[in-house]
What does this fold into?
Amino acid sequence: MNGMVKITLAASLLAALSACGNSSADEGGAGPLAILAQTATQAVAARRAPEAPAAPARSPQDAVAEALRVNQGPLIQAGFENLGRSQIMAMTGQNGAMRTYMTPSEEALILRNGLLVGTRGLGNDLSVAEPQLESAIRAGASGSGSRVMRYYSGDGLERPLQFDCRTAPGPNAGVLVESCEGHGISFQNNYMVQGGGIPVSRQWIGPALGYVTIQTLRP
Amino acid sequence: MRRSRLIRQLMATALPITLVMGSGSGTATADPLLGRTMSTYGLPGGIDTPTAETLPDGTLGATLSWSDYARRGNIFFQALPGLTGVLRYARVEGINDFRNEGFISDRSLDLRYQVLGEDGWRPAVAIGVQDFLGTGVYSGEYIVATRSVTPSVRVSAGLGWGVLAGKPRVIDINDNGGTANVDQLFSGGVKPFGSVSWQVNDKLNLVAEYSQDRYLARYSNGREFQQGEEPGSKLNLAANYQIGRNYSAGIYAIGGETIGAQVTVALNPREAAYPSGLEKAPAPVRPRPSPAADPEGWSGAWSQDPTAQPAIQKALGDAMAKEGQRLEAMALSANRAEVRLRNLRYINQAEAIGRTARLMTRALPPSVETFVITSTTDGMPTSSVTLRRSDVERLENTDAARIAAAASLADAAPGAPGLVATDGIYPRFRWSVRPYLDLGIFSAEDGLTHEVGAEARASYEIMPGLVATGALRQRAFGDIGQRGPAIGLPGTRGEYYTPEEYEADPSLETTPEGVPRVRSDTRMYTGNSSPVIPEATLAWYAKPSSTVYTRITVGLLERSFGGVSAEALWKPANSQLAFGAEVNRVRKRDFDQLFDFRDYEVTTGHVSAYYEFTEGFTAQLDLGKYLAGDVGATVTLAREFANGWQVGAYATKTDLSADEFGEGSFDKGITLSIPIGWATGQPSRDRVSTNLRSLSRDGGARLNVNGRLYDRVRDSHTVDLYEGWGRFWR
It folds into this structure.
């Protein structure tokens, strides 16, 4: 099988930094490199303008006060530990006890009466959490049961992870701790329970995003 | 419940742990024993010798290695959990052929199957064939066992034949290659080989191996060549360093004297940078107010108001556009709404459908209980998903299997009563101007070649399904010049006609074996310094019945051919099986790629059968007449992932003899297609696709017409739709 054979890898790529047209990014044809370039541009812009809309040198208290003033609906403050950022999120929808809160850039946390149900738009999203101990958590009671966490996996499926969990009152008064184990990892969710609601909590999203602390600013 | 079993299979979520957690912690009884370092031949292994290790299922990557013996570019793919394949392009040093350059370029293919995984005391065992098509420089076979001695040390021992036994096969200088050398497999004497690999820490791995390879090439005309220097000993050493998750680099010493280096990149389709994608959160469901709070909305009386539907359609269309979808048409009655959407943004149609269902809960009056979401492509409705609005409200953000069980999938009728087209969508004109880069890689004669220029492209959708497309290219610079085909007469290997010679003598447009040149003169179409028209077509897509799709394309269909192409496809939405037929009457275009044609004209066409298996495999069989008038069949097998990755292989055999076809004996190739969104996290239907094949052969060549129906239609059909259904609530 000596050479002679002309193999062409027709990878007609490249594009974009100087491309123009009226096609939107959605309508294909933008080409792979166009999108890569766009992504890179966004990444650079994101780096150059850290928290730009939050205005320079504004204290967290000011941000909260401003958000409460501007937005009349329910608000939470969410601190994503692995992402290293804390954001104020406004409720954009309510379906029964389930509420969807979003950041201005349309990343979402979905909570059911304070309990984390899912995330959207964060890149390593939790599709849905199914905690068997939900009623024990709300009652502030001890118990044990399973918790299924479903994730969007890289191959395009929704994949479940099952954990074994126990709930018990934590060291601080009024705080319930749910300890879960499985697949060689463990995590602890902390809930401050008040009348079945959970105004403050620290909950585990998943292996990549880690914990989020959620504080209700306006119920 | 056959249907629900199929849905379950398609949404199957086996092997959850490693995939989400990103590290191997499986509890399977037999460990597949994943490779830690790649050999210079691009397989998990020592340095030159193989081991019984595999790669994570679906892994696609490349290993490039350099030494005084050879430069090898290996493309590897873990096609099945136990089956690894490698396609290799090598510059083998020290061998003189007719070019007298001191090296040859060589293509080869290896396969390895891990028969047994590691289990307790039992080692993993694999059997492999190296360079098994034709008799090649690297031809050899092996059986090898690998076992972990400690968590960081693995030992492999095996038996090798051919080069692995230091007994290279005699290469037949008259062989066209490309067919399996079955009679030589596991013949000609056997010798042992072995290796030890020590994972020093997370990054560093050291390997020592005992190899029999003498780096000798023997030819049937009696000539023998030593590649590089004869190894002074049988001991080889290497150090490899892992860089991040996807890269590794290493250095090695063969026989104590020859030093080499290699780099590997390995991509696992299951490991995306942003597994869930970075697209914005969907607008959530808006539950209906109680009947007491909105008696008029619940009564359906609003549907009598002629201004209701236009206002609702405008609001819904605008909201869908924000989420990357075009609302093409809508039919609305008091309790039922059908929307026809074109998904422009998401790889998984289920994500588009799920977002549309939620937007419908926000836009439609409460009396509308039945949602029919019909996917369309190029004006053709492809399938309808019917949902109850109360199920959408009840099941929002739950396990996607629950809404799958509550939804029904059906064929979409070509039209629907009461369907109103959305204003202002057609006609639609789009244009773009951007630079392009064409790369020629792996060319034995030319090395890496390139061409850079600008391409203007425009499309005009006159009405749904009727699209005019045109492209104009201007080359700026590059080294892919115009050239005639290889002369192909005895004693002229490696020599080409000049463009002038080739154009001056029309008889040259048939090969000496009598085959019309349809692809072997493809280089005549390159190197134009004036503008060329790669494509200028008018395409009409239609759906005459609920399961039949048609396409007619006229114009300059591709770089080398223009004419008429007609296609029909039968594909019910719930069927894994499809049949198609295509007929083309085409004429060869002139080399200036404008509006002139040459003399060669042919009718080419195929009947095709397609099948989608539930485990992510698809098969296609085409029977028909190819561009050069040869008659035969193409078999294509592909592996697909729900995230849009596709890796396929195909082979075409026609009634041309191996001699008429030329080197390679028959046409075969590998197709790769990777969605851009997988790499960037940004939602997009764009892909990077490539076809690794021999471009210069005339046998088994098909027309490269754009817009073939099958891949356009099946996104919203049973297998593809349910495989990606996990993203319904994304």
Summary: Confidence is low (pLDDT under 50) at residues 14-19, 22-29 of chain B. The two ends of chain B are 27 Å apart (CA to CA). The longest strand of chain B covers residues 447-463. Chain B touches chain A through 109 residues (CB under 8 Å).
